[in-house]
Amino acid sequence: MTDWIITPGLTDHADAVARMEARVAAIHAGTADEAVWLVEHPPIYTAGTSARPEDLLSPRFPVHATGRGGQYTYHGPGQRIAYVMLDLNRRGRDVRAFVGQLEAWVIDALADFGVTGVVRPGRVGVWVPRPDKPALFDGTMREDKIAAIGVKLRRWVSFHGISINLDPDLTHYDGIVPCGIIGHGVTSLVDLGLPVTMADLDVALRQGFDRRFG
After folding, report:
1. 94 SS3 class
2. What is the pLDDT of residues 58-78, one digit of tens each?
3. Residues marked as catalytic
4. Structure confidence at residue 68 (pLDDT)
5. Using only C-alpha atoms, what is the Rg of the chain?
6. What's the CA angle centered on 91, arms 120 and 165, to 5 degrees?
7. What angle do CA 204, 21, 165 make, to 5 degrees?
8. Do 16 and 83 touch, CB atoms closer than 8 A?
9. Strands 143-154 and 44-47, how do they pair?
10. Residue 2 CB: number of other CB atoms within 10 A?
11. Is 179 within 8 Å of 129 (Cβ atoms)?
12. What was the pLDDT predicted at 140?
């Protein structure tokens, strides 16, 4: 059984990490069920284990170092964070396959709104092709990032997870080089012209989770 938890309002990032760590320990001990926890955060930048100092361009918001994989990313209102606390001891100890499941989960949810999400080697997260925007200098089609993925494992129990841009202030990404990627940009469901609500996105995530993780 997987608990599905939605916390309204804005959740402090440090408090969220502490709660995840406690839940992960309980899952490993067998005293709590797996969980998916949906939250929003106040504006912050988080630095993953591969973050490069030069990618923090303007620390206009608090910067939190975190043990998840990845580089710098932004979290803020209008972005759905899904913290995924699953026991890979019983789901198969395959990190690559697990990340692939997370990517497929996001792509499934986006497809519910007619958005085609893609993954690219060397570029973490889920991207949306933008033929409506000017191509990059080398003629490559621009692709905007709509979702970030960063996980951590403790005794093969996962935490951290995914974030999907529903309608955050995209100018807040200007203070960092998101995930170390230069050239491609960021987008959101509303930026793509879709009047999606957070409740709509939560339903799509729940349905997609059930299909991918059971």
Report:
1. coil
2. 989 999 988 787 888 899 999
3. 179
4. 82
5. 16
6. 40
7. 30
8. yes
9. unpaired
10. 16
11. no
12. 87
Phi, psi of 8, deg, nearest 5:
-75, 165
* Count of helices and strands (H, E) across the chain: 4, 10
Closest CA to 141 of 188, 111, 179, 183: 183
Buried/exposed code over 123-137 (b: 16+ C-beta within 10 A; e: otherwise): ebbbbbebeeeeeee
Secondary structure of 26-67 as H, E, C letters: HHHHCCCCEEEEEECCCCEEEECCCCCHHHECCCCCCEEECC
Length of the chain: 214
Cα–Cα–Cα angle for 142, 147, 148, rounded to 5 degrees: 110
What's the predicted TM-score (pTM) here?
0.94
Tracing tokens 């349905």 back to the chain, one arrives at 207
Determine the distance from the C-alpha atom of residue 9 to the mean position of all C-alpha atoms in its chain, rounded to a whole number. Answer: 18
What is the amino acid identity at position 51?
A: A
Assess whether pLDDT exceeds 90 at residue 42. yes
Positive or negative, the CA dihedral 105, 134, 55, 64 is negative
Per-residue pLDDT, 156: 97
Sole residue written with tokens 């995840």: 20
Q: What is the pLDDT of residue 83?
A: 98
Please count the other Cβ atoms lying within 10 Å of the Cβ belonging to residue 5. 14
Residue 98 pLDDT exceeds 80: yes
SS3 127: strand
- 59-92 as b/e, with b when 16 or more CB fall inside 10 Å? eebeeeebebbbbbbbbbebbbbbbbbbbbeebe
C-beta of residue 201 within 8 angstroms of C-beta of residue 165? no
